ABC transporter related protein
Amino acid sequence: MSQSIEQTTANLEINNVQNNHNQQNLITEFVKNIKNYSIVLARSLPLLWETAPKETSIIIILVLLRSCIPAISIAINKQIVDGISLALKSPESANFRTIISLVVFWVTAIFIENISTPWYNSAFINLADKLTANINIKLMEKADTFIDITNFENSKFYDELELLQNRASAEPLSLLQGILEILAILITLVSMLILLSTTAWWIPALILVACLPQTYLSFKLESEIWNKIFYKSPQSRRMRYYSNVLLTDTFVKEVRLFDLSAFFRQRYVAAFEDKYQMISQLRGKQAFITTILGILSASGNAFSFCWVVLQALAGKLTAGSILLLIQSLAYIQENINRLLQSSLILQRSTLFMEMFFRFMETQPSMTVSLPSKNVPKPLQSGIVFDNLEFAYPDGRKALSGISFTLHPGETVALVGENGAGKSTLVKLLARFYDPTSGNIYIDGENLKELDLKEWRKQIAVVFQDFCRYALTIGENIALGDTSAMDDLERLKLASEKSEIAYKIEKLSQGYSTPLGKQFDGTELSGGEWQKLAIARAFIREDDAQIMILDEPTAALDPRSEYEIFNSFAQLVRGKTAILVTHRLASVRLADRILVLKAGKLVEVGTHEELLQKNGEYATLWNMQAEQYQMSY
Ligand SMILES: Nc1ncnc2c1ncn2[C@@H]1O[C@H](COP(=O)(O)OP(=O)(O)OP(=O)(O)O)[C@@H](O)[C@H]1O
């Protein structure tokens, strides 16, 4: 028995320690959260100022002015009512001049409030629009500092970026709304406090303190809902993906052909239901806690109201003071409710801004060693791939033990089966990634130490997954070298080399023809788009020392392919070139052929040498020869 008492005492002590610990945790968390939000807000305000100083000044002045109006008009009301009471009791001692001046003041206050409203709204909307644009510009500028593409392949990073971009038009507006509302409410509450300081200063203080737990806990729960469920849950990401499949043109053909709409809608609904279950639990918890704490907050108000009535019954208050107290109580209660609403709005947008500032501080995974070295031009000894190993950020190994030298002026063809690592090698040469081990040397200089922007100017690449810009034909070509944007001669030359000039000349708007469905432009065939992408690479031939075509002819007909390769052969004369292709008939124009297999370099030689060797290349060649009944 004594043992169980000891045990109970010990348990009680443990419980006490735990309770103290929990309370400490709650307080630490509260302080931490408040600190966090204050930091985010302190960083957001200069952003407003930087975005639009004129609108910000107008808004701040008007908020300050308008928020004092309730307290001023209540004070005037009190004076008017007391003045009128006195005039009714003893007309001889009435001061009608003061009453008239007060009425004029009151009317002026109402006029100020009404006249300022349209100006306030217009400044608010202008500021919100400018803020949205500024945040988007900052996101684009920041994204440009990620010189590699690793971050864009990291789902967490990409997801946050997408969310920032999607919410950039809504959240800054809420941030502004939240900040201004809370500023206005606090000014109103403080002015009420000042107003009541002679009669009952403790009323606003009591009501404010009574509502703080409710505000804080709603705030905290909303943060949980927002953070865990709206933004970051896998269900939300899946929902976005499923709706994208059905609502964007990327998937439109297969969705119709395979009748996939119901399938993706079901997936969407399942993800939503999963998410909704979690949200409704949290919302229920939020409603319960808010109700309990709402009772506390309302009790503060009820107590104050009873006090006013008792004081009035005891004859301790003038008619004006009763009016002042009752009006103040109504205002305070209304503002406290608004405070709760606004703090929720502000809390969401603060989380958005927190995410935005975190994104702005993200360090690129690849850096350029400074001071960077000049890119050797023209190439003397060539490009050395020294024992390259590469695994993608997800751990998938794509290349191993790759060593070879690309001599200046040499054209090499990279061949190999799907997934052999050909495009990966091109990506490493463009320094979209750094090798996991091993190095690439350009005339003896490590690629990592070269000026990366300059290096990329030296390379003209047509990627397998080239881009189709919703711009004009001329702009689509000139993106390869923006200095050629208005140079029709250069545009024509590049399009002749890529076998697209004949098509452009047939169009009534020629090089000014807008392309792409987004802005009602003309649509081209897959092969024509590909030729434009090739023209884009060809237009930078004057500057680029290295030409790379990564599977450039997949969508081309045999005649175009033959002509483009002829053009390529002429174009790359004297330049260093890499040609990645599955069409082995084309690789014969290369000086050397490199055969990749499962990430390894398995054969190197000329077409004839490799056929004689009768290895991997010969197998691939014979398979294609059989298929196309080629004779050689
Ligand atoms: N972004 C990526 N993240 C992870 N793995 C990747 C990525 N890109 C390619 N891989 C993997 O790396 C390997 C090599 O791919 P790569 O695109 O270099 O092959 P390839 O020889 O160009 O193929 P293809 O002839 O089909 O274009 C493949 O196994 C592929 O799955």
